[in-house]
Fold Proteasome-activating nucleotidase.
Amino acid sequence: MSRSPSLPDRPRLDLDPEMSDAERLDAMQKHFARIMQVNEELDERLEEADDRMEGLQEEVDQLKRRNDTLKKASLYLASVEEVTDDGVVIKQHGNNQEVLTEVSPQLETKLEAGDRVAINDSFAVQRILDDETDARAQAMEVDESPEVTYDDIGGIDEQIREVKEAVEDPLSSPELFEEVGVDPPSGVLLYGPPGTGKTMLAKAVANQTDATFIKMAGSELVQKFIGEGARLVRDLFSLAAEREPAVIFIDEIDAVASKRTDSKTSGDAEVQRTMMQLLNEMDGFEERGDVRIIAATNRFDMLDEAILRPGRFDRLIEVPKPNEEGRRRILEIHTSRMNVADDVDLDEFADELDGFSGADIASLTTEAGMFAIRDDRTEVKMDDFEAAREKLAEAEEDDIVGEFTDYQY
Ligand SMILES: Nc1ncnc2c1ncn2[C@@H]1O[C@H](COP(=O)(O)OP(=O)(O)OP(=O)(O)O)[C@@H](O)[C@H]1O
């Protein structure tokens, strides 16, 4: 690591009492010039240090993420086969290895054959897990008939059109694709900043096609135990096949499909296995009938290219933050059921919301309503909207409101 050079010396002003006024003035001017120069040098250094800090912060974040994965994924999943006087017979999931292992007296009294447990590298039982259906319920959200419609989504008409074409048409008129002789896109990847309507889009398309909406969060997949991520992916696809027509929505796909890291830790290997399972499922996708798959990410830059190959997520749709017209439409949507005063000018207000996402605008309108309620009014005025905007902008500065953070994508 290179060490930064030492700081410039502090300039000194030496004034000799013998000096004439002109000489003094000259010395002071030179001193001033030197101070300015040192100041400039220090500014430069500060800038360099800031850059370096940013780089280091990124490294720290990466290490933290890796550490989290490691901590979370270093346990394996097993089932209890039998509780005997000599210990407990467990069967590790994935490799089906059976082992007789000792357990702590506290756990032993609670264990029963059939329990799901988490074990460590040496097969020691660490804890008893909720039953399997709980694990699934936690990782998956199933909605038979989501209520979101395209009309509820503002500012991304072009993206709606693309999603209709890539997801809705193959579900509602598969014969069209057959007649023309083209395969519909396998998977659609929506990418863009948080809170821009990606989940809404997936729900709306499921609604429009009367399909079951099945959501899985990528982050839920990697917080589980070794072997469980891959199994949940398998479950996800078989559940979709049972419930077809269905729309599978994998949120935060970057959690399981990031560019490969160099490390060969067990956590990384687990994420890798989960991704391989996902790719496998997608590769065998054609026979799956009326199931469409949509994934979303805020971190497009982190994705492993393997998932973007033809036959996988081969239709990319960027979902950006709304422009002024989009913001106005979103404001309109979110205020449609509000009792808004005559002085509220949404056109003018939309102009002030540069950088706001759809989710930010949704919280802003709720917040404006709260201001009216606090003031014992039933009508929401322009001042309430302004106050809400200021409150959210302050929260952004304090970094309280996550949605405001501009992720790189
Ligand atoms: N384009 C939009 N039009 C109307 N409302 C929106 C829009 N985008 C976001 N919202 C509001 O924000 C909420 C969150 O949006 P959504 O979950 O679809 O965002 P997302 O892009 O999936 O975010 P994330 O990447 O954080 O998962 C929505 O329930 C809705 O209230």
The chain has a mean pLDDT of 83.
